[in-house]
Amino acid sequence: MSESSDQQVLDAQGAAHTTHAKLAAWVDEVAQLTKPDSVYWVDGSQGEWDRLTQELVDAGTLTRLNPELFPNSFAAFSDPADVARVEEQTFICSEKERDAGFTNNWMEPSKMKAKLTSLFDGSMRGRTMYVIPFVMGHVDAEDPKFGVEITDSAYVVASMRIMARIGTDVLRKMEELDAFFVPALHSVGAPLEEGQEDVAWPCNTEKWIVHFPEERSIWSYGSGYGGNALLGKKCYALRIASVMARDEGWLAEHMLILRLTSPEGKAYHVAGAFPSATGKTNLALLQPTIPGWKAETLGDDITWIRLGHEGEMRVVNPEAGLFGVAPGTGWSTNPNAMKAISKGNSIFTNVALTDDGGVWWEGMTDEVPEHLTDWRGNDWTPESKEPAAHPNSRFCTPIDQIDMLAKEYYEPNGVELNAILFGGRRKTTIPLVTQSRDWSNGVFMGATLSSETTAAAAGQVGVVRRDPMAMLPFIGYDAGDYLNHWDRISQKANPERLPKIFLVNWFRRTADGGFAWPGFGENSRVLKWAIERIEGKAEAIETPIGFVPAPGALDLNGLDLSEDALQDATRFDASEWVDELASIEEWFAKFGDSLPASLQSELAGLKERLGAK
Ligand code: GTP
Ligand code: SPV
Ligand code: MN
Predict the structure, then answer these.
(1) In what order do the strands lie in the sheet with 313-316?
(2) Which residues bind Mn(2+) (predicted)?
(3) Which residue's alpha carbon is nearest to atom 24 within ligand 1?
(4) Any binding-site annotation on 336?
(5) Span 229-243, pLDDT tens digits
(6) Domain boundaries of the chain, sorted by first residue
(7) Across residues 285-302, what is the average pLDDT?
(8) Taking CB atoms and a 6 Å cutoff, what residues make up the pocket around ligand 2?
């Protein structure tokens, strides 16, 4: 069958829209391949948002919410088979298979290109092709990181406007610098034949999320959801950026950043690497329960770490919005997120609708509404067996709507990092907080981080897996090289200024199955201990796995927690570490010869301290 004989090929006229020759050529090339009805250059304006969201309402993709409850806000409902990242279909197509490492799917780049080229051929028929210039981080950064996403989804355009700095200003800056940009091509993979009616959430059963690290390009096909489709986020700012960072001497990490000010007025910046749906956004919006401490948000999902002129580690949040897990985000657990969301200008995906035109999800309010329309569009009552909102339903909200946003968020070259938390979702074994013995021991804590899987990725939930630095699905190259790169960067850093490292676990259980630690705002107590450790003030006791709070060192003033629950949350239990050691050894064995020697000796040291052979 001849692909284009029956249809005139669109002349995208790239050069008429930009003086950036490479961009103009790429846009023309993509239009030739994907054959959209028209090409539209996204300017990022409010008028454009108003127009696009109205078109999405007319198409049935978005539902406008009651403006008295959520002004300028919308709900979207995805295809039930397109609700999360698809790790099985995510590929790192480096030239050599070894460079993708054992944690990634790999296919030979030319083979993958051929496959994708045939899928993208005509994939935008009957649709508009949107060109979104964007920058991750600040346009005025020393080395701004540009990208251009081409997509056939207006929902993606609207979401990208919240999540990244996009539009004409960015394009002009790219032109002025004749800057390199990451070409990020996205199609929902649902071309429309002449006269064919569209569906509310077009997508394809076949999905491919593909990265070509050497040419720094992204091709995403078949999904319209989250990290699969908003390509500035996981695809660029983590997978491609991690490769850039390896080559350029910095780190791209899956971390929140929080600014904490002590009662004495001293400010600290704490980053936290927790796997997907394991508490980053919540900690980033922390409401401290202890008096005198102030918390401010810098970032909730992605952190870029560079070395400053004095060898200090500096962190920036490259994003401009929150794409937060809705369930569990509530007025009692995370009032700061709720306040930000309530200002409007948000897109909610796969949440439930209330009868008065608002949204609801499990955990939003203590009181459960008597009637809802669930995320699948069915009537829902408290007796219903299924949750009203999908477990991976999300709110997408501009970051500057957070009242507690730190003004340092706007610093193009970031702030100094003082502490790193590595955290997992573990029912057993990992105590509430453990300070590493030193930097190298802290990197070991990160390299062996483990967590139960969540609904943020398609597949089984609740299975413990190793997730190094919470980056397992996001490392764009060989995982052993990645851990080596942590070593390399820290060797270049000023040893006096290296952040202190802590392992945390908010999710340990009591015998009856409940959470031992109340979490959320109460996590400020753990942060206080960590900061006081940096200041040399808080007491700790040494265990084989590191330093844990001495009795009485954790500030529990005003907290209603039984001694048993406190023990369950905080205890180091040598018997639990027998299985843990075996599991760490199994994990390290997978790296083969790419595991840094420093980690092998950390493991040997741990075994010795645990008295294991
Ligand atoms: P991604 O956006 O997927 O990367 O997730 P995240 O790491 O930002 O996780 P988030 O803060 O959205 O939390 C995910 C889930 O964990 C939500 O349902 C929260 O309510 C829950 N959660 C967060 N912090 C805590 C805590 O301290 N204790 C308990 N028990 N649950 C928590
Ligand atoms: C995650 O899964 O870590 C997320 C959501 O932050 S997504 O943007 O879909 O990757
Ligand atoms: Mn995330």
Answers:
(1) 251-253, 303-307, 313-316, 415-416
(2) 234, 254, 301
(3) 279
(4) no
(5) 999 999 999 999 999
(6) 21-61+88-248, 252-319+408-610, 322-401
(7) 98
(8) 85, 226-227, 233-234, 276, 301, 323, 456
One-letter amino acid of 153? S
Q: Please check whether residue 303 is in contact with residue 255, taking contact to mean a CB–CB distance below 8 angstroms.
A: yes
Minimal-distance CA residue to ligand 2 atom 1: 276
Does the domain made of 322-401 have the CATH classification 3.10.20.740?
Answer: no
C-beta 436 within 6 A of ligand 1 = no
The ligand with the least distance to the CA atom of 457 is 2
Helix, strand, coil percentages, rounded to 5, for the chain: 30, 20, 45
Atom of ligand 1 nearest to the CA of 279: 11
Q: Evaluate if residue 4 carries a pLDDT over 80.
A: no
Task: Look at ligand 2, atom 7, and give the residue with the nearest C-alpha.
Answer: 227
580 pLDDT more than 70: yes
Q: Please give the Cα distance from 468 to 472 (Å, whole number).
A: 6
Predicted model pTM: 0.97
pLDDT 10s digits, 50-108: 999 999 999 999 999 999 999 999 999 999 999 999 999 999 999 999 999 999 999 99
- Rounded distance, CA 251 to CA 544, Å? 29
585 is known to lie in a ligand binding site: no
pLDDT-based confidence at residue 8 (cuts at 50, 70, 90): low
CATH number assigned to the domain with residue range 252-319+408-610, chosen from the 4 options 3.30.420.10, 3.90.228.20, 3.40.718.10, 1.20.1440.230: 3.90.228.20
